[in-house]
Design brief:
The protein is α/β, with parallel strands linked by helices. The chain is built from seven helices and 17 strands. The chain is about 20% helix and about 35% strand. Strand 3 and strand 4 form a beta hairpin. The radius of gyration is 17 Å and the shape is globular. The chain binds flavin-adenine dinucleotide and FE2/S2 (inorganic) cluster (FES).
Length: about 260
């Protein structure tokens, strides 16, 4: 499915991140992504940060030129959407530890919403460079999730990377599953810490994408195409993807260290 949609709402979530809400009919599940086409510009993969009903949403962090320009999109402007694509989080585990870094909350927030709606107990270890960049802090609180914060500069919660509190929670807490999205080096540490206490992990992984249909190989990760085999992977799958947490591929397909 694809459509040109009108942006209904624009919410500045953090100094570098905005949410665009638009009406888009197809059913979607937390974890899935859409390709967002910005007229006269580029097409980018974006997780759906709002999946319920027809008023969907994407939450975009300024990373490069196109995402920076997308922060300037105003209500009333039109964008192209195709999808949703990819797989989703299974919301049924009873006790979930969520480890979110930076814009990783965009995909994890609707997944936590789905788990809470089923009565799941969710602890969110939420990390960012600085307090104003903690994405969806209030949204997670409103869902009734337990929040543990970490910032690189110590302006909210613990000072340092979110992997610190995440590793402590894994040692001390009682969880059935771990979900994570954020910088890949962070996710690699989370997978390793969860493995040490025997917990299954689901990671939402990003790679450059072009077709989103499993045809162009732009999103190759070991034996997988992130667009059709993911973007949500199990720890077991990632064990067979040696690039995970070490290398990515640039727009021309060249392997680059992270
Ligand atoms: C399935 C999927 C879901 C995504 N969901 C979101 C989301 O919900 N919110 C969000 O803000 N971003 C998300 N991204 C990442 C987003 O697509 C990229 O940040 C964006 O394409 C960068 O485009 P650009 O032209 O602005 O940056 P570029 O100029 O292309 O790159 C700027 C910097 O961003 C890095 N970068 C580019 N593409 C990616 C990528 N795919 N993953 C990680 N780093 C990248 C580059 O290496 C470079 O350092 C997602 C990516 C995928 C694959
Ligand atoms: S983006 Fe083309 S194969 Fe995944």
């Amino acid at each position: 499915m694809r459509a040109v949609v009108r942006v209904e709402e624009r919410v500045a979530e953090t100094p570098t991140t905005v949410t665009l809400r638009f009406r888009y009919e197809p059913d979607a599940s937390p974890g899935q992504f859409v390709m967002v086409w910005l007229p006269d510009d580029d097409e980018l993969p974006m997780s759906l940060s709002y999946t319920r009903g027809t008023l969907k949403g994407v939450t975009i962090k300024a990373m490069g030129e196109t995402t920076r320009r997308s922060l300037g999109i105003a209500p009333g402007q039109r964008i192209g959407i195709r999808g949703p694509y990819g797989n989703c989080f299974d919301p049924t585990p009873r006790r979930i530890l969520v480890v979110a870094g930076g814009s990783g909350s965009a995909v994890l927030a609707p997944a936590v919403e789905a788990a809470r709606a089923l009565g799941g107990e969710v602890t969110v270890a939420l990390g960012a460079t600085t307090a104003p960049e903690l994405l969806f802090r209030e949204r997670f609180e409103a869902m009734g999730a337990r929040l543990v914060l970490a910032t690189d500069d110590g302006s909210a919660g613990e000072k340092g990377f979110v992997t610190g509190p995440a590793e402590r929670l894994l040692r001390e807490g009682s969880f059935d599953a771990v979900w994570t999205c954020g910088p890949e080096v962070m996710m690699r540490k989370v997978v390793s810490a969860a493995g040490a206490v025997g917990l299954p992990v689901r990671c939402s992984v990003e790679r450059h994408m072009k077709c989103a249909l499993g045809m162009c190989d732009a999103c190759a990760l070991g034996p997988f195409h992130v667009c059709v085999d993911g973007p949500v992977f199990t720890d077991r799958q990632l064990a067979s993807a040696e690039d995970f947490g070490r290398f990515h591929r640039d727009a021309s397909g060249r392997r680059r260290p992270l």
